[in-house]
């Protein structure tokens, strides 16, 4: 068991920069757009985001381990587009609602969407984005097999990759500045739009 | 032209003439080089590298940092050339700050040219909604992040109108058609139609990531545009005149000019009381004798812009002259 955790952790550590690349375009604009005033508030956002990722990994880890050889990596291209599209659409929706709260549709969405759960949702969707490190982990899991081992392996993988998201906290002193919040919201719209277009093209 | 500015005291007219010539000369030179390199003016396949300009460099700056890190780690000294560009940029920014965008940038010269085609705007457009005022900075942040993740200059590949006649990294036909569509749309809308209809420099004021970059780093430069509260009568002529939306009604009440101001001088020429002028000083203007700040700024601006123009304007003018002459000979 310890060996499995260590293996997952080391895999996470070695492929983590890729995860930072996947999270950064979503998380940096999001942190600015949210504009939380303190380090602890921003740490909480990152914590919730990691929780979302954790849930995604756990679900996938257990699922893949359980399903074993059934889920083949060649299915992943479409799944990756789907996950990326969902993340981008959520980001776009969030940024539009945030920047145009007086628009009828946005006001309606603002009332209905659980905006406070946004980091968890983003984390979850980015977590199930099927990226190369994730594929390597899945490939290893297919050999491991078993629900518990799968979850344990992904736990280690999660811990390893999560270290790379901590530098995101560095933007904290700037997030309370209203101008930076506006800039964050605008860049969230653009990043969301770009990735949505990428996902739609497959 | 520089002397006309000093003699007439009107900054923007002669600056614009110079600026427009500089921009078109750059385009001609760029195309001529392309023909020299490839034998054609419009190339899609032969050039496999993205030709870099200051806009592309700024909006993919994190990629350069990453490349320099790799170069340092591997001892590949040849890969250090961006540092030379960096030093050049630093020098220009220290001397000129944001004024680059109204004195030496080819895109600025292009939208200035179209904005100057009409005497009066066909459509009045004096303010940008608050949510969109920082759009250039939003675009810059998005481009920095997307370029780093894609390891490609995204602005260059998807939004730069100059690319209409150059090569692409991407060999996929559908992608290339979409890219061409984007370049044409951005160029036609922001460089030609909006400036022509509204007399506003829509490309520089609304979407250029380098404008935002210079607005941020240009703060190290001491030149500012200052509104003297005691002289301002709140007539709002400067709001109408500013081509990049840098003075608005709210800001004017507090005599504030936006950090995106690129020192073009249009507001100074429009102000009936001489309330706006160049100033020197970071937070507050230093108390200098009247006219000193203006002379200091104009000298710096003409020196840098003149040096940039010397790289290609005389050569292009000479080529054009020879070409015209050969028609009559
Ligand atoms: S044009 Fe001059 S006087 Fe009129 S509002 Fe602007 S600064 Fe004041
Ligand atoms: S505030 Fe004046 S100098 Fe600055 S960009 Fe506007 S018109 Fe030009």
In spatial order, strands of the major sheet of chain B run 1-2
Structural class of chain B: mainly alpha
Bound molecules: iron/sulfur cluster
When the domains of chain A are counted, the total is: 1
Using only C-alpha atoms, the radius of gyration of chain A works out to: 17 Å
Mean pLDDT of chain A: 78
Query: Which protein chains make the most extensive interface, counting residues with beta carbons within 8 Å of the other chain's beta carbons?
Result: A-B, 20 and 16 residues
Helix content of chain A: over 70%
- Global morphology of chain A: globular
Number of structural domains of chain B: 1
Percent helix range of chain B: 55-70%
Strand content of chain A: under 5%
Structural class of chain A: mainly alpha
Give Rg of chain B in angstroms: 20 Å
Q: Main β-sheet of chain B, in a few words?
A: 2 strands, antiparallel
Low-confidence stretches of chain A: none
The largest sheet of chain A is: none
Structure summary, number of beta strands of chain B = 2
What is the chain-wise order of helices and strands of chain A? HHHHHHHH
